[in-house]
Amino acid sequence: MSDLIPIAFKNVNQLWAYILTETLKRLGLTCAIICPGSRSTPLAIAFAQQVPEIEAISILDERSAAFFALGQAKATGRPVVLVCTSGTAGANFYSAVIEASYSRVPLLILTTDRPPELRDCHSGQTIDQLRLYGNYPNWQTELALPSPDMGMLAYLRQTVIHSWERTQTPTKGPVHLNIPFRDPLAPIPDGTDLSYLQSQFQPEDFFAEIANPCPMTPVASSRQSRPTHWLPHAPCPIPKEWKECDRGIIIAGVAQPSQPQEYCRAIAHLSQTLQWPVLAEGLSPVRNYAELNPYLISTYDLILRNQQLAKQLVPEMVIQVGEMPTSKELRNWIDATQPRRWIIDNSDQNLDPLHGRTTHLRISVEDIKAEERNLSFSSDYGKKWCDAETQVRLVIDQTMGKIDEIIESKAAWLISQILPPGTPLFIGNSMPVRDVEYFWKPNNLGVRSYFNRGANGIDGTLSTALGMAHRQQSSVMLTGDLALLHDTNGFLIRNKFIGHLTIVLINNNGGGIFEMLPIAKFDPPFEEFFGTPQDIDFAQLCATYNVQHELITSWQQLQERLNPLPTTGIRVLELQTNRKLDAKWRQDNLRKFAADIAI
Q1: pLDDT at residue number 212
Q2: What phi and psi, each to the nearest 5 degrees, are found at residue 345?
Q3: What confidence score (pLDDT) does residue 372 get?
Q4: Residue 106's closest CA among 160, 167, 163, 162?
Q5: How far apart, in whole angstroms, are the C-alpha atoms of residue 139 and residue 177?
Q6: Which of 268, 270, 330, 537 is 20 to 30 Å from the Cα of 236, by its Cα?
């Protein structure tokens, strides 16, 4: 504290910034991402003074910085601070703010600004930053101009505390504080006599009793202590109508729970109590804790492509845990059959894009009071699902096992079986998430999957993965070439990055997802405006950033590179595939996997 006080009283701006950062440190902030700029100088200096209690990381590109912060918040479960200068700098945070809002990730955005008298008069690097992110933040406000008054310092402290709370309650998400500063921005005297205030200011009294009001339970890490758990809700009894239904399914949707094993166990208990099968999305941890869920169905997308099976398996009731899976087959099937549905999720958001006969239960699945029963179905309905799963899974595994050439779809299938236990895995959007849903094999590896499925965009893919992997277990990212190219500025983080990230790059020279759409039959303009081949030499690109690159030419080679993983650095393992042939393979095979199945 003694080292901070002299700098804090250099001028009013520095005092203001000190109060803000010290409050955040006492609340539990451990990571702040600082983008370079002049107007944010007081905050940059104050955060630098808080090292090592707060890790302050300088990142050049604001969009990349925002997604790095997003990945770090996903991995730790804790709010991460973002700081930028005035002008368009904050606008570059926007896409990450949207993703944080939809995927419920706690971010505290601090955009610095010019004072009111320099706005709307063509002063340089000045835009309208009020409500810059529309309605996406959980809460937003502009702070008052810095003032050397004890009452105003208390206002600042309490506003920061409230901001921290709102990143986490009632639903996690972003909070935006716009912070104006007048010159001078450097820690030099500004003509204000702060000697009296300094003599009266008692830090331990001023900051007394500040504590994290919203304790989290983040991912366990050798570098982190585990904070207090949320206080549990009272157990919620299972509705009688669920117990009386023998044609029900549980859909384990897209989810990144802070405690995946407990989450999967809760779903398993509910499944076994009701004796309902669990249709588990590839982006659900349920597939990575398979032994906990004896009624696990991973091939539902392929099963439902068989129209006869789809009719036989129509449910009367559906419990959806978390967000709806990616599968269009599943969505169309649910929409067409209109079963009675319940959504279990403790957020305040509407998670039913199908607008069906749905009841939202605003609780966590862990809050449901369920008891395990025997591990065999008493209903023919449940047996049909399990029989179909067994048969389709066998066909998939046999088919994939015989494929020697490098094709996109086998990558997800193979990776699901070979990663070191507990590996953090970031899955890029477009085709990677779909191949994971189709082919990710249930396992007991406890792989921790991460993804940006809030807005489902490709922006920030690399930066998010680096943020996820920073100071965590050696990590992996599965992505396509366009998603990586969209965020190559993320490689600028390499010198600040601590840990290891292996990037499994599926390079089909373009947008493979569009090959699956009707527009693919219309060329021109398909190739130029949808396929968009970039013809990039990734070996040269990686050399530019001093990132390791290796061309993978066999599945055995990929397996050897992914287990064990290195402990430091960034590397790219490139698999070159044929976009047209990959698309044709999916079109020829996705319906065949369940075509001959009988139940």
Answers
A1: 64
A2: -165, 135
A3: 66
A4: 167
A5: 9
A6: 330
Write out the two tokens for 246.
């023998």
Output helix, strand, coil percentages for the chain, rounded to the nearest 5: 40, 15, 45
Q: What is the pLDDT of residues 23-69, one digit of tens each?
A: 999 999 999 999 999 999 999 999 999 999 999 999 999 999 999 99
Q: How far apart are CA 338 and CA 315, in angstroms?
A: 9
Rounded-to-10 torsion of CA 53, 58, 61, 66: 0
The Cα–Cα gap between 481 and 538 comes to 9
| Torsional class of 563: left (φ above 0), alpha (ψ -120 to 50), beta (otherwise) | beta
Q: Residue 553, SS3?
A: coil
Three-state secondary-structure class, residue 413: helix
Q: Judging by DSSP bridges, how do beta strands 80-84 and 31-34 pair with one another? A: parallel
Which residues make Cβ contacts (< 8 Å) with residue 263, sequence separation at least 6?
255, 257, 285, 365, 366
User: Which residues on neighbouring strands pair with residue 360, listed in sequence order?
Assistant: 343
Integer angstrom CA distances of residue 473 from 76, 398, 567: 12, 32, 8
Contacts of 390 (CB under 8 A, 6+ apart): none
Is there a contact between 181 and 125 (Cβ–Cβ < 8 Å)? no
Choose between 108 and 349: higher pLDDT: 108
What is the DSSP code (8-state) at residue 525? Answer: T
Nearest of 515, 518, 442 to residue 480 by alpha carbon = 515
User: Terminus-to-terminus CA distance in the chain, angstroms?
Assistant: 70
Summarize pLDDT for 269-313 with one digit per residue, the tens. Answer: 999 999 999 999 999 999 999 999 999 999 999 999 999 999 999
> What residues contact residue 454 under an 8 Å CB cut-off, 6+ apart?
98, 99, 100, 101, 102, 103, 104, 105
Length of the chain: 599
Give dist(CA 580, CA 409) in Å, integer. Answer: 13
Query: What is the spatial distance between Cα 120 and Cα 133, in angstroms, rounded to a whole number?
Result: 19
Assign 338 to helix, strand or coil.
coil
Nearest C-alpha neighbor of 362 from the set 173, 218, 273, 236: 236
Question: What pLDDT, on a 0 to 100 scale, did the predictor assign at position 225?
Answer: 32
pLDDT at 156: 98
- The answer for residues whose C-beta is within 8 angstroms of residue 311's C-beta and 6 or more apart is none
